[in-house]
Amino acid sequence: MPHTTRGHRLTLCMALLGLALMSGCRSEAPANTPTNAKLTRTGSQPSVEEVARGFEHPWALAFLPDGRMLVSERGGRLWLLSADGQQRQPVRGLPPVVARGQGGLLDVSVAPTSVVPGADSWVYWTYSEPGTGAEARLQGTAVARGRLVGDELLDVQVVYRQVPKTSGHGHYGSRLVWGRDGHLFVTLGDRQRDDPSRPGREHAQNLGTTLGKVVRLRADGTVPADNPRWPTPGARPEVYSLGHRNAQGAALHPDTGELWLTEHGPQGGDELNRVLPGRNHGWPLVSAGCPYGSPEVHTCQVNGGHHEPDFEPPLSVWAPYSTAPSGLAFNTAKRYPGWEGHLFSGSLSGETLWRIELKDHQVVARQPLLERKVGRIRDVRMGPDGWLYLVTDEEDGRILRLVR
């Protein structure tokens, strides 16, 4: 059954991101609040090596079992790269996408062979799918899969569609994460249907839709029997958690197997969340961010930003200014001494990579890396070779390797 926890009262009045840029700022928040995670700049700054470039607004990176890479471009192309990044070819067989605004071809993931066995690699991807019939002018996030044979996807089928399709071209969410049990987590944005200034239209709180939700599916798109059981009549059984705005970073905790994600706040208030079954993360009823157009970003919050007693508080927030988090990965290798088990989050507006140090599921320190900006970091992946890889969302997008 779904339940809630009594989190700490969030009184958020200073920006940790601002602390990254200047010294001498003070915070009136209690020492155990998410924004008061220690900011550290200790240790040498890492650099990056270019693996490949020339991608038009790439969105995601995935590794095949033999070390080759798949790179999605928001415009609708999927590329197959050699393991060294020097050779590439387009992948055929993708369905049409709506490549407007934030929409297009988005995340890509290779299913574990234990989940979908066979000699071929089963590839899953998310995209903004055009509607048909009565929904002809609408679109929504969809999940499709196909067998990669050579440079072609065969047996392509859509295994899940967000409900309902809507107008507009924003907040698709779209990260794919495989759980240890072989089930698939999908982050689904609120499609910009939620406006904190207009009460009574809280779509991310409506369990009859999958706007602003995380859903959990079997590999074929059906619903696992052990998903949360919601007491609300008409609740959709695929919903795993609710109250999300636009989660564009997601990763599985290497020790617990729990889903962690980063999501965009409105005007500030970006969040790092630990997602447990049946929890409500509050959007759009509460947020450390401000409604768009608010002039006093240092003092305003959506409904005061309070998460108790009914909503799950974030583990960490970026407020009042946004870092626009996208792409999330745990370091599970030993190529970065002293950073084992740390979390790495890409930043779009900040054009940096955040290192997040954890202890007992709490954020104890955050560090913005890369003194020299490399571009809008859209994706962060742990490679099979133990290196962290970054994807920059630019007209001449690049695949980078983090070197320390």
UniProtKB/TrEMBL annotation:
Keyword Signal among UniProt keywords: yes
Pfam families assigned: GSDH
Keyword annotations: Signal
Signal peptide start and end residues: 1-28
InterPro entries in the record: 6-blade_b-propeller_TolB-like, Glc/Sorbosone_DH, Quinoprot_gluc/sorb_DH_b-prop
Recorded superkingdom: Bacteria
Signal in keyword set: yes
Domain Glucose/Sorbosone dehydrogenase: 55-401
PANTHER family membership: ALDOSE SUGAR DEHYDROGENASE YLII (PTHR19328:SF75), HEDGEHOG-INTERACTING PROTEIN (PTHR19328)
Protein's name in the database: PQQ-dependent sugar dehydrogenase
Organism: Aquabacterium lacunae
